[in-house]
Specification:
The structure holds 2 protein chains of 2 kinds. By secondary structure, chain A is of the alpha+beta class. Helices cover 45% and strands 12% of the residues of chain A. Classes of the chains: A alpha+beta, B alpha/beta.
């Protein structure tokens, strides 16, 4: 299963070394992390040593080597968000979800991360949940975003 | 396929009809900033309402007109009416607006502004809207260009953002797009002429360094070799700057046209655009733009039948700040770890795959087509002696009007902050403006720092480097900002008020750089870490008198010995804050106080019994349940339990929560 998926990604980029980062991104999207087995297979197929794959996979923020939650929360920590209290929002979400930044909740629902800047600075502070941006947050509003919705 | 001028004009006519159709057009600004405020729901509401009311109207999507503060924004064109922009829409308001339009009514009270005529930047043609059917209340709506946020703006790079559908190449052509390229390619203008034009225009790289673009183009052109590359740097890493995202989302073709002209000039057939992966929408829009350009024969083999071949590939970045540095970016395109290399040999001579490479950023590329269309002299007539043209700034932070603005170089900070930005909200005081991202610095915009020193009873004459006068009247261009100890960078302007602590800001940037330093060279890797540990000490009340000198000393090493600009400019935020806000550092070090009330270890929260009305809102908001208080009795914070999260302060409507 893993091999087929990786093979399809390699074919998409015609096995071009130049597209290594794009392939890893597609792998990250499809597995939600980079499983060791997938990396080993990719290395064999493209004849890239595992050391180099590891170097690339750990250098860029877009990749993770551990499984991620179903949803990724990115708290923007750009300068504008920082002066408008992004730190407080990170603190609050850490307490709300009982994870540290970078961690995944026990129920595997959320992974909490910070991001450098999502480029919507005029609406600071911002939190992204997957690709959906939520702007002009307060601690309370941020906490409400991640609380389980009450079912009527 | 476009082969002749007539083909191009045919498409231009079609595109123009879509921009100004003969029926109602409602366009929703759905760039990232719009979507973050709910433009997606507004778009849905508009679509549903149009269908319900059976209104004969076109519903479209567009980019951002820059006034992000007022998002979501609707752009409504009605035949016989001026173009009207409605701001701060909600799904409910959007529905009401459509219902009103269906009845032939309007909602002038929600309007941000109107446009009566549009002048095309490329060919100076004018499109006039009519007022013939518009009632008097429409005439009373402010002209968009008269409201303070737009009054001093001059749009070159942002010319089409928010005005056209970015996903429709025909609309870009209708705005005069690809006309300059067509003329250059079909008339086979000599490459040296084009280089001369860029040189004469005085265009400097907009990514931060401000290197003269024409000079770079010339070096690449003259470099030997058959294979050369063109790269667009869209790895907009500076936090607080987002103009490149907005251009890619709102007008991708303007960047592409610049790149094709650049490729023809230096003799390149392969281009790359390196976009941050944090900008998924920009990647999507540019991908679509490439496809459309290929269909019309604007990219690919034999462009416009001229015999010139060129194509562009998109690379998504991996989320590393250092990849905005040219050599690191090239390493990343090659599929490697994005570490910079020494630049004894310029990338213009040996860049990507060791071939001559012309790398410019998004904003620089977007300036090229207008320069070619209107001429170098026109461009050079805008701006200051050393910095020509306009610059897009993102005005963000603690300022009333936030958004993207494009102004001629040389505008003063005062004009930007007080006129376009309309000052600071909530009656607070301006303190500083931060420009240039982590490589830039904080500039004092008020004499607050000095006054504060006086207030502390420190009457000793200031050190030579201590600037006491305000820099509020500083003209903004590449050179003056560098002289003042900051830099232009990519154009982020983050406004800070008296609740922003400069020690904290310094720490923030060092923390940023500590994580983003690639670790290849020692001064950067270790220097940043050491500076940060000193600053951590200062902000936690463990500051020592010799700390400031030590910081300056380490900063010197970083500046002298780092491999790339990330390390070399890393001390700027610290040096500039020490230079302009020394008293604030001293307050932390000697009195263990944080005057701005930010550094957690040095502050305590309490409730002012005079101001507290006993509304219990803070009691409910406190996540640690450490506020005691009954209704209509002053509340009290149980200090040992308080985690200083500031929730109570955020919710208090009476400013009763005090930080000491």
């Amino acid at each position: 299963m893993i091999h087929e998926k990786v093979a399809a990604i390699i074919d998409k980029y015609e096995g071009d070394h130049e597209s290594l980062i794009m392939m890893l991104q597609d792998m990250q999207d499809s597995f939600r992390y980079l499983p060791e087995e997938a990396l080993r297979y990719l290395g064999e197929r493209l004849d890239i040593p595992m050391t180099q794959l590891y170097a690339v996979a750990t250098f860029y923020k877009a990749f993770s080597l551990t499984p991620q939650g179903d949803h990724t929360i990115h708290v923007c920590c750009g300068t504008a968000c920082h002066v408008k209290g992004a730190d407080r929002i990170v603190d609050r979400l850490e307490r709300e979800l009982h994870v540290k930044e970078g961690g995944t909740t026990l129920d595997k629902r959320y992974t909490l991360k910070t991001v450098r800047c999502v480029g919507a600075c005029s609406l600071a502070p911002i939190v992204l949940i997957d690709e959906q941006a939520h702007g002009r947050l307060t601690q309370d509003k941020a906490a409400k975003l991640v609380r389980p919705k009450k079912t009527a | 396929m476009i082969r002749t001028w007539e083909d191009l004009q045919e498409i231009r006519k079609r595109g123009a009809k879509k921009i100004h159709p003969d029926k109602i057009k409602i366009a929703v600004g759905t760039a990232t900033c719009g979507l973050a405020t709910g433009a997606g729901d507004v778009l849905k509401a508009v679509r549903e309402a149009v269908e319900q009311c059976r209104l004969d109207a076109i519903v479209a999507e567009t980019g951002c007109i820059g006034y992000c503060q007022k998002e979501p924004i609707l752009d409504v064109c009605i035949p016989g009416f001026p173009r009207i922009f409605y701001s701060e829409m909600t799904p409910a308001k959007a529905k009401q607006l459509v219902e009103a339009l269906a009845k032939g009514e309007h909602k002038p009270e929600w309007a941000l502004g109107k446009i009566l005529s549009e002048t095309n930047l490329i060919d100076e043609s004018v499109f006039n809207y009519t007022m013939e059917k518009a009632p008097i209340e429409i005439a009373k709506i402010h002209n968009l260009n008269d409201i303070s946020f737009y009054k001093k703006q001059f749009k070159i790079v942002l010319r089409n953002c928010g005005m056209i559908d970015p996903e429709d190449i025909e609309q870009y052509i209708a705005m005069g797009g690809y006309h300059a390229l067509f003329k250059i390619l079909t008339k086979k203008r000599p490459q040296t002429d084009l280089i001369e034009a860029v040189k004469k225009s005085g265009l400097r790289g907009r990514g931060g360094g401000g290197f003269p673009a024409g000079k770079k183009w010339e070096t690449v052109y003259k470099a030997p070799g058959d294979v050369k590359y063109v790269i667009c740097n869209a790895d907009e890493g500076d936090p607080g700057a987002y103009m490149d995202r907005s251009v890619l989302e709102g007008d991708p073709h303007s960047v592409m046209e610049g790149m094709i002209i650049g490729a023809y000039t230096i003799g390149s057939n392969h281009g790359y655009i390196y976009v941050r992966h944090e900008y998924p929408q920009a990647v999507r829009k540019f991908t679509k733009a490439i496809e459309q350009a290929r269909e019309l024969g604007i990219l690919g083999k034999n462009i416009f039948g001229s015999g010139f071949d060129f194509d562009i590939k998109i690379n998504r970045g991996g989320g590393a700040f250092v990849c905005g540095e040219s050599t690191a970016l090239m390493a990343s395109i090659e599929g490697d770890v994005g570490e910079p290399r020494p630049k004894y040999i310029h990338t213009a001579e040996a860049g990507l795959w060791n071939k001559p490479t012309n790398l410019n950023n998004v904003e620089t590329w977007a300036n090229i087509a207008p320069i070619m269309a209107r001429g170098a002299d026109w461009f050079a007539s805008i701006g200051t002696e050393g910095s020509k043209g306009t610059k897009v700034f993102s005005l963000v932070g603690k300022v009333k009007n936030t958004g993207l603005l494009e102004v001629p170089m040389g505008i003063t900070l005062r004009e930007v902050l007080y006129e376009l930005g309309e000052g600071i909200p909530e009656g607070r005081r301006f303190k500083a403006v931060q420009t240039g991202g982590p490589s830039g610095g904080c500039l004092i915009v008020d004499t607050f720092g000095w006054k504060h020193r006086e207030y502390l009873g420190d009457t000793a004459p200031p050190a030579v480097s201590y600037v006491t006068e305000s820099l509020i009247d500083l003209p903004v261009d590449f050179d003056t900002l560098t002289e003042a100890g900051s830099m232009m960078g990519s154009g982020g302007m983050i406004i800070m008020d008296d609740t922003s602590c400069m020690v904290d800001i310094g720490r923030y940037f060092l923390n940023f750089l500590k994580e983003e330093s690639c670790g290849k060279c020692t001064p950067c890797r270790e220097g940043i870490r050491n500076m940060l540990s000193i600053l951590d000490g200062i902000s936690e009340g463990r500051g020592k008198p010799e700390d400031l000198d030590r910081l300056v000393e380490i900063a010197q090493v970083l500046q002298d010995a780092s491999l790339c600009a990330l390390g070399g400019s890393a001390p700027n935020p610290i040096l500039s804050t020490i230079r302009y806000f020394r008293s604030e550092y001293e307050e932390h070090i000697f009195h263990k106080r944080c005057p701005a009330g930010v550094c957690k270890a040095l502050i305590r929260f309490s409730i002012d019994p005079e101001k507290c009305t006993g509304c219990t809102v803070c009691v409910k908001a406190c996540p640690e349940n450490c506020i005691e208080g009954k209704k209509q009795k002053p509340h009290r914070i149980d200090e040992p339990k308080c985690i200083k999260c500031g929730s109570c302060q955020e919710v208090c409507k009476f400013n009763a929560v005090v930080i000491q």
